[in-house]
Amino acid sequence: MTTQVLLTIDTELAWRHHARGASWQENLRFSYDGAGAGVPYQLEVLKRHGLKACFFVDPMPALVYGIEPVEQMVAPILAAGQEVQLHLHSFWRDLAQGRSDDARFELTGFGYREQLDLIETARDLLVAAGAPQPTAFRAGSYAADAHTLAALAALGIRHDSSHNGAEPMSRLPFGRELVDPAEHDGVMEIPISQIRRPDGGLRPLQICALSIAEMRAALWHAGSQRHSIATIVCHSFELATRDGRRVNRLVRSRFDALCAFLASHAAILPTADFRTLALDPDRPAAEPLATGRLRTAHRMAEQAWGQARYENPLAGATIVAVPPLVAFEELVALAGL
């Protein structure tokens, strides 16, 4: 009995580079291939280890820049034999309509009809950029709700992977601790996998959020408990610093180690994509791994070092930073207070 591993990479042009006035060529360089540690690097590592991955590509920048940057994102992924599915950040439409001062960043800020139109537009742009018709979707910032699922069903998009129990912007009609696939109104939800923090909260299986020790433990747990699937998140820009100018060696080493681990355990933890996904409804109910305090303390120290080494004194929050409130809560739990 195996546990399929869905390694997903959200692939997009970043708001932060647009906001500082970067051209689409600069945005593509820093968001798609920052410091030579972006999608081309990820594709090469995947190829070396014989792994499958799903790249959720956001085509909405085409509304502002035209279709060329999206074509340049899609083509190398397909040429490498990897899968392209649909991602969507809604603010690009507002930017295209001149609403730069009050752009809406979450899909959940729209009703059903507007979400339907946005997803349909994104789908058509992705196909125009050379991708096959998408069968899976992930909302930007995991900001999805019941309207999103209804819109996906109406458009014939069978899978959603927006549910993230650790993210408050994920407002789908499921319990926070859901890690099993779950069907809702004709759409199969494939949640982001989680571990349980010592304080009882959740933390997602995301490359920048967990140490490699935590990810290995979570995957061993999924395999030993016969989970149907384990879903991991990365981003096109995640292995570089926030400004896209330097490699973040801490996060890149996690990605490299994760791929090596998956390759060496392919018999029990095979990678899959939505084209090959096979779901077994008879599997036992999945529970997140309850992480140990030692692993948590190690990761927090690692994150703090990574923040100091690779992000400070850059302006703005970092993708590898530990949010202060979360860090405080975890420290309290670790101290047993």
Provide a descriptive summary of the structure in words.
Helices cover 40% and strands 14% of the residues. The protein has one domain: TIM Barrel (Alpha-Beta Barrel). The protein is globular and about 50 Å long. The chain has 337 residues and is an alpha/beta fold.
The proportion of strand residues reads: 5-15%
Main sheet: strands, sense, barrel? 9 strands, mixed
- pLDDT averaged residue by residue: 90
Class from helix and strand fractions: alpha/beta
Given the structure, what is the number of helices? 12
> How many beta-strand segments?
12
CATH topology: TIM Barrel
Our Rg estimate from Cα atoms comes to: 19 Å
Helical residues, percent: 25-40%
CATH class categorisation: Alpha Beta
Question: CATH superfamily membership, which one?
Answer: Glycoside hydrolase/deacetylase
Q: Write down the secondary-structure element order.
A: EHHHEHHEHHEHEEEEEHEHEEHH
Give short descriptive properties of this protein.
alpha/beta; TIM Barrel; 12 helices; 12 strands; 40% helix
Write the layout of secondary structure elements.
Blueprint: E1 4-11, H1 15-19, H2 24-32, H3 39-49, E2 54-57, H4 62-65, H5 68-79, E3 83-88, H6 91-96, H7 112-128, E4 136-139, H8 146-155, E5 159-160, E6 182-184, E7 187-189, E8 194-196, E9 202-204, H9 212-224, E10 229-235, H10 249-264, E11 271-272, E12 289-290, H11 293-311, H12 324-335
Parallel strand pairs: 1-2, 1-10, 1-11, 2-3, 3-4, 4-5, 5-7, 8-12
Antiparallel strand pairs: 6-7, 8-9
